[in-house]
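Hi R.,

Quick one: here's the DUF2973 domain-containing protein sequence you asked about.
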Amino acid sequence: MLHLLYILAFTILAFIAVANLIRNLVMFSFDTDRTYSRSSMGQGNSAYMSSRKQFIPHPELLDSSGNLIKEPLLVMRSVNVEDARQQLDALYEASPGQKSEKEEG
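And here's the predicted structure, written out as tokens:
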């Protein structure tokens, strides 16, 4: 009987937690969509809201002159399996731990 009481209590708590989660998500989405009038905003908030409306790109998306980069940022070249194994073996052999293991052995 006590087990059923625990199951019932935790089921009720789980429903309350899920209901609060859904309510908070809905309220958060409404809060981000809300537009504020100029009279309700203070001086500090208006500067924040006006800067938030402007698009400020990340510095890595700009070239040396400050213009947006319009080319792909990630270019991958295909490497066959044998080349990848050789590069990994070279890295492994060049690692500092590898030399100490050879001296011990």
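Helices lie at 2-33, 43-53, 81-94, 96-104.

Cheers,
M.
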